[in-house]
Amino acid sequence: MRKVAIVGAGMTKFVRRALETPIELAYEAAKMALDSCGLTLKDIECVVLGSAVDAFDGVCMKGEYLSGGAGAWGKPFMRHSVGGGTGVFSCIHGWMHVASGMFDLCLVVAEEKMSCCQPHPQGAFLTVYDSILERPLGLNLLWVVAQEMNHYMITNGLKSEDVALVSVKNKRNALDHPAAMLGADITVEDVVNSEIISWPVHRLDISATSDGAAAIVLASERLAERITDKPVWIAGVGYNLDTWYWTSRDLSYPVYVEKAARMAYEMAGIREPQKEIHIVEPYDPFSFKELQNLEALLLADRGKAAQLTADGVTARDGNMPVCPSGGLLGVGNPISAAALMKVCEIFWQLRGEAGKRQVPGNPKVGLAQAWGDMMQTGTVVILKV
Amino acid sequence: MKMDVNLGGTPIREEDIKEKKVLYTEWIPKARYAWDAGVAIGRFLEELKNGRIIGTECQRCRRIMVPPRLFCELCYTPVNRWTYLGDRGRVRTFCMSRVRWDASRVEEPFFPSVIELDGGKKGTALFHVIRGVDLEHMKVGLRVKAVWKAPEERIGAITDIEYFIPE
Questions:
Q1: CATH code for A4-118+208-384?
Q2: Is A182 an interface residue toward B (CB < 8 Å)?
Q3: Which of A150, A231, A270, B59 could form a disulfide with A224 if both were Cys (CB 3.0 to 4.6 A apart)?
């Protein structure tokens, strides 16, 4: 397989409800990514598009709908969808196109406009659950994740306050992100005193439904160094799928994320992740998810991620900055775009271009991860300069 | 990050919509579906009508699957050993929800839960809702039992079990 680099990145603001159409959002992010590396659409050989759940935008075959905004007309085009894992998988899907030798330049776009779904986008999740045994009970993503959070907390002896630290950190980090919608200076008390949505999930333990888009440009080794003097190499990719029957999964530990991570580490030649990974953007749609994912990524010992957070290890100026962007809890959560934003963040951080969010110490290796499908998929990319 | 560029994405507010400052089109889909229950789930639903919970056991990995399947996804072999499970069990995990499926709020919270049914093997568990308990008394490991609809009201659906309550 050939070496592949990210050479450009772009995104829109993440907002609760955008004036722009999904197509316009896709265009804005893709154009910014192209401009950032001095390319035009003419240079691009193929386009890859990620979008999570068609029911949000209310358009079936959303890939075709978005294709014009993503710059795909007249080019080889492929859309993929693995729920929340989509954004990181977008990078993997684009990597496949270039690593295979089929293309030298690939534009990768992810978009979600959740606000279209009325009165609240949460309702759209009902369409992904089992039609015969779960929908009649009104199953809801919040119920499933809250049961998972409870199992994780009980297994590891954690209190709401331990987990709330993640929201405090990420929302504070997001104050420095110009695209963020949820940046805030809050305390642990604010989180545990916020409305109980589905105990143990409080209002401030959750990201918000959002609109937005993100994009990256991938180049083969042959072109990457001609396009930029700071290519960011995709050193490893991993993805793994667990059972669709969520009740038979170990809800305290996402073993599929560990499998995806091990696949990516092996490809990247990483033997000691806790020493070799400098910055991390794990998936954080809920506060506990950052902790659980850090453990499954083998970046924290089992049950110990909360302690790392309390000790400041995961702060922007800590030994292993986690979600320096502000994450989904701080920047927002237009699902597929949110996870691709994580890849963009690692790209900017490794190039030293993250502005006020820049972590100290010239990080050289970063990891982005997302979680999706029926809460059963792990997607991981490792980036290096 | 050259974020000194003008980032795309223009936030609009609820008021902008109410005051018709932005234009939009509404559509209420009237799509209708009829999902066949299939062979394995069909039998499961028939048994619910009889007030019983049935699963299948994989003869290779020995796990009992609820809802039942005709094949084991892990061993990828056919499964034909049917086995009844209890309508009682213990709570593996739960949450206390204040929201319905569409995020609208409810007056009285309830407990969506994963329940390990008696007679299960290697991870057998059913999703349902527990009522008649409060957060203080709700615990992992709590024993619960199914509350069935009256036989003449059952239609062969998961809602033939109205909910579970503490034993």
A1: 3.40.47.10
A2: no
A3: A231
